[in-house]
Specification:
2 domains; 3-stranded antiparallel β-sheet; 3 strands
Length: about 210
């Protein structure tokens, strides 16, 4: 019998990693907004270069970019208190960028920055795997053993400044469909906030 198993890991920061700031020339209007900032000009310029290294359309810069940027800065060793201050500065900068490019609305769109910053120290990863077992109980046992083994292997290899902890097996579901193209192997229900958080993580603009 085949089962899908969702395994949860938690990564804790153990040492900083080096974050490289891209070397590129920002669009003139963006540079103008940076100069208008009363504080944190260097930070805003670094953030803008970070975003423009992957996104060439200024109108597509959004709140999710700030979270990703600050997440990497936290991993590089920037203190949590400073990260919170940088969030305030970058939110102001993002609002002015939107105004400069004629984009309407509030960049936050109902999100809670203080709540979102809570994930910067502990990163959780959910991994869905296929398990072949005689029954659901055996599938749970195999998934737990797999999770522990993967965490140990990750930590032995260094973890890039992170220590991985096996939290547990979230779900085990028997796969009813025959394995093959378009076979459903896992599903779960999400709240609207959970769905938006996933969309933001993959840099998809939530409507």
């Amino acid at each position: 019998m085949w089962f899908s198993a969702a395994i949860l890991f938690r990564d804790r920061l153990t040492k900083g990693i080096e974050v490289q700031t891209p070397k590129l020339r920002l669009p003139k209007r963006v540079r103008s907004v940076v100069r208008e900032m009363e504080e944190g000009r260097d930070l805003c310029e670094e953030f803008a270069k970070y975003v423009f290294s992957a996104e060439d359309d200024p109108t597509k810069i959004h709140y999710g970019h700030i979270l990703t940027f600050l997440g990497e800065r936290r991993l590089s060793g920037v203190p949590k208190k400073q990260i919170r201050k940088e969030m305030e500065i970058l939110l102001k900068f993002l609002g002015r960028l939107w105004e400069a490019f004629g984009k309407q609305g509030n960049p936050l769109r109902g999100e809670n920055p203080a709540e979102d910053l809570d994930w910067l120290d502990d990163w959780h990863e959910e991994v869905v795997v296929l398990i072949e077992a005689e029954n659901e109980e055996k599938a749970w046992e195999k998934a737990e053993a797999l999770g522990k083994r993967w965490a140990d292997e990750y930590n032995r290899e260094g973890g890039n400044g992170l220590k991985r902890e096996f939290v547990g097996v979230l779900t085990v579901q028997e796969i009813i469909d025959e394995l093959g193209d378009e076979a459903e192997i896992f599903s779960r229900f999400l709240t609207t906030k959970e769905a938006k958080r996933l969309l933001r993580q993959y840099r998809i603009k939530a409507q």
